[in-house]
Amino acid sequence: MELFDSHAHYDDEKFNEDRDFIIKEIYKSGVTKFVSAGYSLESSKKGIEISNKYDYVYTTCGISPNDIPYEKDKIEQELNQIEKLAKENAKVLAIGEIGLDYYWNKDNKDLQKYVFLEQIKIANKLNLPIMIHTRDAIMDTIDIIKNTEFAKPGIFHCCPFNKDLIQAGLDKGFYISFAGPVTFKNSKNAKEIVSIVPIEKLLIETDSPYLSPEPNRGKRNDSRNVVFIAKKIAEFKNMNVEEIAKITYKNAKDVFNIK
Fold first, then answer.
1. Positive or negative, the Cα torsion across 225, 188, 196, 132?
2. Are 245 and 230 in contact (CB under 8 A)?
3. Which of 35, 231, 236, 258 yields a CA-CA distance of 20 to 30 A from 109?
């Protein structure tokens, strides 16, 4: 059984002591492809560096809503560099993670929307999908999704359990990626939410090193734990885990255009 972790962060300092060892162990465990996603200019550069060391590791470039500079000139410089990195590096599969986050940042909503939309333009220009982060910003995210055209279907990464958000994404052909929270005992509507996503639009991810699934909740996460998300989704879908692994592997290759 092969698994594809569609979103993790191996540039994170939590992997500084054993990054190469963990990446090799992940592959040996059966997770034979994964994406180490960027969220800032520096993490995007680091993701490219990591992905170039391993055939089975890919990356993304983007500025998350929590990493937007406040200086207008610096924003424009970073957006230009993100576009350049994505254009020049074959291992960059998407623009992301990008989006809106009003949990951590409530005072720059208009700036977040501007940077989100500018990065969608970059993705469209380069014919790449986008990888969306949204937290406590459901309505504004839905509004942007509904009123924007996309060159490629995007991905709701670590998707919030919100029916309207998921439907807005599905209406645009987006893929829905689930992480550790689908396994949490207090995620009471997880089964209902997973049930509305067609299997051909499902992705699985760990968001490592964060959001470790049960039974490893509270520990440092890594891509080996993606099997627990696959097992929980298989349970919710009344399928076997091998089927979910195969389907989500194909879906990830499709959305990221991996041959």
1. negative
2. yes
3. 35
Please tell me whether the peptide bond between 65 and the residue prior to it is cis, using omega within 30 degrees of 0.
no
Domain span including residue 185? 3-255
Tokens of 259: 């041959």
Per-position b or e across 47-60, b if 16+ CB within 10 A of its CB? bbebbeebeebbbb
pLDDT tens-digit series, residues 137-194 = 999 999 999 999 999 999 999 999 999 999 999 999 999 999 999 999 999 899 999 9
Question: What SS3 class is residue 16?
Answer: coil
Q: In one letter, which amino acid is 219?
A: K
Residues 204 and 178 sit within 8 Å (Cβ to Cβ) = yes
- Contacts for 38 with CB less than 8 Å, ≥ 6 apart: 11, 44, 45, 46, 47, 59, 60, 61, 62, 96, 97
Instruction: Output the CA torsion sign for 211, 215, 220, 223.
Output: negative
Instruction: List the structure tokens of 244.
Output: 């979910």
Contacts of 200 (CB under 8 A, 6+ apart): 247, 251
Sign of torsion, CA 238 242 243 246? positive
**101: amino acid identity, one letter:** D
How many domains is the chain built from?
1
What's the pLDDT at 64?
Answer: 98
pLDDT beneath 50: ranges in the chain: none
3-class state of residue 81 by DSSP = helix
CATH code at 169?
3.20.20.140
The confidence score (pLDDT) of residue 204 equals: 98
Asked whether the beta carbons of 158 and 181 are under 8 A apart, the reply is: yes
Q: Are 60 and 37 in contact (CB under 8 A)?
A: yes
